[in-house]
Amino acid sequence: GAGVSQSPRYKVAKRGQDVALRCDPISGHVSLFWYQQALGQGPEFLTYFQNEAQLDKSGLPSDRFFAERPEGSVSTLKIQRTQQEDSAVYLCASSLWDRGGNQPQHFGDGTRLSIL
Amino acid sequence: SQKIEQNSEALNIQEGKTATLTCNYTNYSPAYLQWYRQDPGRGPVFLLLIRENEKEKRKERLKVTFDTTLKQSLFHITASQPADSATYLCALGTGGYNKLIFGAGTRLAVHP
Fold this sequence. Notes:
Chain A is mainly β. Chain A is 0% helix and 47% strand. Chain A is built from no helices and 11 strands. In chain A, the strands form 2 sheets. In chain A, strands 2, 4, 5, 6, 9, 10 and 11 form a 7-stranded mixed beta sheet that branches. A 4-stranded antiparallel beta sheet of chain A has the order 1-3-8-7, with no helix packed on it. Chain B has 112 residues and is mainly beta. Chain B has no helices and 11 strands. In chain B, strands 2, 4, 5, 9, 10 and 11 form a 6-stranded mixed beta sheet that branches. A 5-stranded antiparallel beta sheet of chain B has the order 1-3-8-7-6, with no helix packed on it. The model of chain B has no long low-confidence stretch (mean pLDDT 94). Classes of the chains: A mainly beta (116), B mainly beta (112). Chains A and B meet through β4, β5, β9 and β10 of A and β4, β5, β9 and β10 of B.
């Protein structure tokens, strides 16, 4: 079956522009996560959705970052007025949900964002 | 402060040997720990999950241990192959909705 799909794979934007990154999770996965990965580092948590509800946005670096999942499937991460420090790979992951939370996460291949 | 440490240097081993990767953590009380593999330009791929009440888990050539007293997990790949060359990430889960905290990863290179 299809895995997690992210688009675009690469995005180049000028400083100050707005960008939107899309994530198509695995069908039926309740949980959806966004992570930011800098070069040579592990993924860092940004935000979590359970269906359409954004339950945790504690990792979003600033109010320029906004995420939504309006129908509980596709999610979009938007970055307004991009800065050079926003350059990174943005990963989306989805998983099944259980009370203990110990489910494998399925990752997309990410969007590599470069801000000039 | 909270910290997750993995071998920062790349690990180079000969084909056929056992690779052992370390994940140490401080100031966390994880309910479980997961290991992922990441190839260049790709997203992480799940390998194994071990819960806090489990000491060891195996899957084919992979073995993971979890010592909550030492605050350490060891990840072993036996009979390593060049195709095992990748970056391996450990991730702590604190329960609830499965939020993961990742280490920086260890790069493994298996030489023929």
